[in-house]
Design a protein that fits this description.
347 residues; alpha+beta; Immunoglobulin-like; 2 domains; five-stranded mixed β-sheet; 2 helices; 42% strand; elongated
């Protein structure tokens, strides 16, 4: 049960991340405020009636909306979603045929409307995770909207069907990682000459039929085997590996909590990677990933990697030290040769 609840919490956290990445959410719209996420646990043959909350923040003009159910997939390995508007076939995880809701709605100025939504799970539905997005786009019966909502907004709907699902995560790569400025891409790196390593990353491929929220721990040891860092939660943002997705999980070696103030006056907590105190040398990182939910057995993946931190100043000292040793050796050799020469002449 604890594992199951953790999965739902993770999905909720991920919803905020997904919606933010879409760039079309209420936080980026002057008029539209919506329910960002809906999570359900439904058995085969079960139905549920619920509502979606939509608020028109504009106090003068009505908000005309078109509603549609759209499947989504991952755009890249960071979990950035991609709405599949042009798809002609449903995905294996689609809820498009299971959701019933109005196609159009009008929200009065400054008012909040609750839109009815019904989800029917067919009796022959197998265990696993199913999800789609509900898109709210500008326009009504006349094809126009009186209020600009920055193109569209999205609510995510997740349904977990309990039972024995197919669980299959594969660990593709693990190592020290350097993010680019956007944080979306980067590269694995084994040798650091300037900045100390701040991030360890691992890539998981989900070939199962349930969205997995892995638990991971990482231990970093120096050349003598001493533990210098222990990351008890190496999935610090509670991210998910969706069905069919290859997902990269970035873990800060020294995570720090920061608070950002938004333009709306609200505070958002986030995690940043603080500086580390690695001394020059070779380090070994050990990863352990456990996953398993929905009443299925828990499985574990493990991996090791090494990386070096050799800053330029240390290399400079090593070069100077080596030069001194070579010079001292040459000096001693010359003295020995000179002594042998004097001894030979005396004979």
């Amino acid at each position: 049960m604890k594992r199951y609840l953790r999965m739902f919490v993770a999905m909720t956290v991920m919803a905020g991340f997904i919606v933010a990445q879409l760039g079309n959410v209420s936080g980026q719209s002057n008029a539209l405020a919506i329910s960002p996420r809906k999570d359900y646990n439904l058995s085969p043959g079960q139905s549920i009636d619920d509502t979606l909350t939509v608020t028109n923040r504009n106090s003068e003009e009505p908000l005309n909306l078109n509603l549609s159910v759209i499947d989504f997939d991952s755009q890249d390995e960071t979990g950035t979603p991609k709405l599949m508007r042009d798809a002609t076939e449903r995905t294996a995880w689609s809820l498009k045929n299971f959701i019933d809701l109005p196609q159009q709605v009008v929200v009065a100025p400054g008012e909040t409307t609750r839109i009815p939504i019904r989800i029917d799970i067919p009796a022959d539905t197998g265990a696993g995770s199913y999800y789609s997005a509900i898109e709210y786009s500008a326009g009504g019966a006349n094809g126009e909207s009186q209020v600009n909502i920055s193109a569209s907004g999205v609510s995510l709907v997740f349904v977990t069907v309990p039972g024995q699902a197919k669980q299959q995560l594969s660990l593709l790569q693990f190592g020290a990682f350097v993010q680019d400025q956007s944080g979306n891409t980067g590269s694995f790196k084994g040798l650091y000459f300037s900045d100390r390593p701040k991030v360890l990353a691992y890539r998981l491929k989900n070939d199962g039929n349930i969205a997995e929220n892995p638990n991971a721990t990482i231990i970093v040891k120096d050349f003598s085997g001493k533990v210098v860092y222990e990351i008890e939660d190496a999935n610090q943002k509670d991210q998910l590996a969706l069905r069919g997705q290859t997902r990269r999980f970035d873990s800060c070696i020294n995570p720090e909590d920061v608070v950002h103030n938004t333009s709306a006056g609200t505070d958002i907590n986030s995690i940043v990677c603080g500086d580390t105190n690695f001394a020059p040398g070779r380090y070994t990182a050990e990863l352990s990933v456990t996953y398993g939910s929905n009443g299925n057995e828990t499985r574990t993946l493990t991996e090791k990697t090494t990386f070096w931190y050799l800053p330029w100043w240390f290399i400079g000292l090593m070069v100077v030290g080596l030069a001194v040793l070579i010079g001292a050796g040459f000096y001693v050799w010359r003295r020995i040769e000179s002594y042998k020469g004097r001894k030979t002449r005396r004979r």
